[in-house]
Amino acid sequence: MRVLTSLLYILFGLLAAYIILEVSGVVLQTRYPVIVVVSCSMYPELNRGDLVVVSGAQSYSPGDVIVYRSEKKPFPIIHRIIEVRDGEVLPKGDNNVVPDGWIPVDRIYGKMVFKIPALGWPKILLMKLTGQINEPLELCTYWYSRQV
After folding, report:
1. Average of pLDDT values for 27-54?
2. Of 39, 50, 64, 100, which is the active-site residue?
3. Out of 19, 51, 79, 128, which residue is the most buried by the measure of CB atoms under 10 Å away?
4. What's the structural domain count of the chain?
5. What CATH code is carried by the domain that includes residue 115?
6. Domain for residue 25, yes or no?
């Protein structure tokens, strides 16, 4: 009986989390209202393990930190817009040397509203255990000299 009660609590918790995530997506007008930072490409603004809340937007400007669908990665990318032109943006990780390349605005899920430091570590550990990421489990440092 005790095991059944525990399983029901776990199931209820998962269902509640799913409902909260779906409602958040509707309220924030984005498919991905919450993103976990899994790499160091946005260090020092964002560190591995930070949880980022994202909201859909009507327009984007240089300096906005956006979440977008990449054709090269299986998960959303969070980088800063460095340039905007007609219907496209040029994102780049703050800790990267080169930009990602031009992407159409229809691949953008939204922009960062705020972050919660370190709250995403449980997801990173799960992704590491299931082989979804190969990133080392450590906090970030600069990848290249800031004088570049």
Report:
1. 89
2. 100
3. 79
4. 1
5. 2.10.109.10
6. no
